[in-house]
Structure formats: C-alpha cells, structure tokens
Design brief:
Elements: H1 15-22, E1 29-33, H2 39-45, E2 52-57, H3 60-66, E3 75-79, E4 92-98, H4 109-119, E5 120-131, H5 136-141, H6 148-163, E6 167-181, H7 184-192, H8 203-214, E7 217-218, E8 221-235
Parallel strand pairs: 1-2, 1-4, 2-3, 4-5
Antiparallel strand pairs: 5-8, 6-8, 7-8
Helix pairs in contact: 4-6
C-alpha cells in the first residue's frame, strides 16, 4: 500500500544521490517536467552519460532565463506544461518531476500522469518527488502558502494512476534534504518572490513569517531538514 509520508524515515541526502543509485541514466533520453532553475537538470546532464534531456518549464520568466544556459549541450529547454507535453508518443526512457506535480491544477493532475505515460517508452520510468507536509520549514511556508490540499491531491492522483493499471509501482523512497538560508532576505528572494507564484503578503503577514523564520536563525544561518517522498513508477 502506498504511503503519503513516513515519519520514521531518517535518511538525509541530496536527491541526486538517490537518482544516480536508482535510475538507469546512461544512454537515457530524459524528460524533466517543471525544471525551474535547472539545478537538477544540470546535475543529471553532467552525470551518467545521459543521451539527452528535454527540460520543460511552464513559467515563461524562468524559461527565458533557462534559454540563456549555454554549457549543457545535451539539454534542450522548452516551454510547456505536464498536462500537455509537447513531445511524441513513447519518446523518453525516463520522466522526472521534482516537487512539481502539486503545482499542476488539481483537475488536470490525472491528465498530467496520462501524458507522462504517453511519452514514456514501454517499461519507461517516472520519478515523481513531492514534499511531505511536515517539518519546521513547512510550518513557515503554510503561514502564507498552505499546500496541504494540493499535495494530498497530487498523491491521490499518483495512487489512481497505479490502481488503474497505467503504471506499476516500482517503489517509494522517503528522505530529507538539507536547506539553509543566510538571512530572511535570502528566504524572501528564494521563496516569497518566486516568479511562478504570486505571493502578496500584507505587512502583518510578512512580519509573522519573519518572526517564525528568525526563530530558526543561528550564527551559521537558518537550517532546515525538508522531508520528501519519491514515487517510482514503471509504464506497463
């Protein structure tokens, strides 16, 4: 039975360590959905002799910035959404989504998983990682952007895709990544002022967020352990 969280999970690592251990990257044609600032894109492109990566981003502002990246010859950046993937049937060995399924409109999440199945080759793998709704960092985030409902909806959509026979569940992985901020101003820049979401905080809300954030500040910055879940699926 699939689990949305595992409170007993104690593994702390960079997600790429799991990717390198679990996915057959060598020679793979990979689609990344919601590539953001292309940090994971870069790590995967530079390891494992990957054949190619199509990295899609729905945020036009971030996509324009990604197009300026010129040192990843095996990566092509595209503008597109998971629920309408601009790619041919059965054209990828691996599809990845890093903390982005819950950003898909709830009524299109099933469509997104159907599109992932469509573009995967038979036996191809989907790596879908999602943040777990827990932890001190989540407690700060939910003050102004509570994602409990959309994260639960994303998990339910994955469960439906497995239960319906579109995918076989290869396994689930639960772990935490380390997060660090030098200052509240850095938190504002990286979390509040993102281009893909419109976070308009009132002065009172901003003050409340700052107070909760600063309660974690140390001489070496604010440190967080952020729990995640990965659902590894195989197209059947």
């Amino acid at each position: 039975m699939m689990k949305i969280a595992d409170p007993a999970a104690d593994l702390v690592c960079d997600e790429f360590e799991l990717i390198a251990a679990e996915l057959p990257l060598a020679g793979a044609h990979i689609l990344e959905l919601g590539c953001g600032k292309a940090e994971k894109t870069r790590a995967i492109a530079q390891a494992g002799q990957v054949a190619s990566i199509l990295a899609l981003e729905v945020d036009a502002i971030q996509h324009a910035r990604n197009l300026e990246i010129a040192d990843l010859p095996n990566v092509r950046f595209g503008h597109g959404a998971a629920e309408a993937i601009p790619a041919d049937n059965a054209s990828f060995d691996i599809v990845t989504m890093f903390k982005s399924l819950h950003h898909v409109p709830v009524d299109r999440m099933d469509d997104a998983l159907g599109e992932i199945r469509r573009v995967l080759k038979p036996g191809g793998l989907a790596w879908i990682s999602e943040p777990v709704y827990a932890g001190p960092f989540n407690d700060i985030l939910r003050l102004f952007h509570d994602e409990k409902a959309v994260r639960a909806a994303a998990f339910a959509a994955v469960c439906r895709a497995v239960d319906s026979g579109q995918f076989a569940l290869v396994g689930q992985r639960f772990f935490s990544t380390r997060g660090r901020f030098d200052s509240f101003e850095q938190f504002e820049e990286r979390i509040i002022r993102v281009t893909h979401s419109d976070h308009r905080l009132s002065p009172e809300m901003l003050a409340a967020v700052r107070e909760k954030f600063m309660s974690h500040m140390t001489p070496t910055g604010a440190h967080f352990l952020n729990p995640l879940r990965v659902d590894i699926l195989r197209k059947v």
